Amino acid sequence: MRPLLFAANWKMNIGPAEARTYLAAFTKAYGRHPDREVWFFPPAVSIEAAAQTIAQRRDLRVGAQDIHWEPKGAFTGAISGSLANQAGAHLTLIGHSERRHVFGETDAETGKKVTAALAAELQPVLCVGETLAQREAGETVPVVTRQLEAALGGRDGKARVTIAYEPVWAIGTGRNATPKDAAEVHRAIRAWLKARAVTAPPFVILYGGSVNLKNAAELLAEHELDGVLVGGASLDPRGWAQLVRTAAG
Ligand code: PEP
Q1: 206 lines ligand 1 (CB under 6 A)
Q2: Has this prediction a pTM greater than 0.85?
Q3: 237-246 and 16-29 helices, crossing angle to 10°
Q4: Which atom of ligand 1 is closest in space to residue 230's alpha carbon?
Q5: Residue 68 annotated to the active site
Q6: Phi and psi dihedrals of 234, rounded to 5?
Q7: How far is CA 167 from CA 35, 73, 83, 103, 221, in A?
Q8: Whose CA is nearest to atom 6 of ligand 1?
Q9: Is the dihedral of CA 94, 38, 45, 130 positive or negative?
Q10: 59 CA to middle of ligand 1, Å?
Q11: Is 249 in the pocket of ligand 1 (CB under 6 A)?
Q12: Mean pLDDT per 10-residue run, the chain (249 residues)?
């Protein structure tokens, strides 16, 4: 059975005390499964509490939702890769659709953030995905490969970078890509990663966009998907534990 990855993006929810309560409930409801790993992306203020609470579970890891590309300095409100690492993060999301479309993050900035994450010993989870207009114009694969090239092009192929394919129109909307549609884009991403050799294999590609208890198993039955990145349906610890436990590999 292939290993599966379940990533929970808490977005701007769950403070430090709530993170402890959440993770106590989650670990009670979800015992270790050797074929799956669970990653949590709390808001920055809750990284340390989350990391401390699950320190004994090697199958559970914590990451930042975003980092700045500079290691330190006058960037009010931002956190660097090193600060996230000091708080206990091992991973970081980069280029999440809300960073790109709400905060105006550019393709070039995602590239600088990948470099910064690797320098701070955080594994990047690079998010890519097209808008509805781009999908309807048949531009999905060109858009996604442009985002990959901007963030990863020119690298030496030694670093492990997880990719999350998250169509913008599917995030938080209740609309998700069909398993077939998601798999088609995953195939294109995998082919690009193999051909360009800018990251180290194995090439792990998650799908994200309105994944929930009802559709996760059907999506994960598609072998192109190595896991899922989940926002809304990860906010309830028992529901999230059930999703991770029951989604078929
Ligand atoms: C996300 O935040 O990456 C996401 C996919 O959110 P949701 O599951 O709520 O669509």
Answers
A1: no
A2: yes
A3: 40
A4: 8
A5: no
A6: -100, 0
A7: 26, 33, 30, 17, 19
A8: 231
A9: positive
A10: 22
A11: no
A12: 91 98 98 96 98 97 98 97 98 97 96 98 98 95 98 96 96 88 97 96 96 96 96 98 87
Atom nearest to 173 CA in ligand 1: 10
69 with 99: CB under 8 angstroms? Answer: no
Cβ of 65 below 6 Å from ligand 1 = no
Strand partners, 164: 127, 206
Closest CA to 225 of 237, 209, 241: 209
DSSP 41-108: E--GGGHHHHHHHTTT-TTEEEEES--BSSSSSS-TT--BHHHHHHHT--EEEES-HHHHHTS---HH
The distance from CA 94 to its chain's CA centroid, rounded to whole angstroms, is 8
Annotation says 101 is catalytic: no
8-state DSSP, 16? H
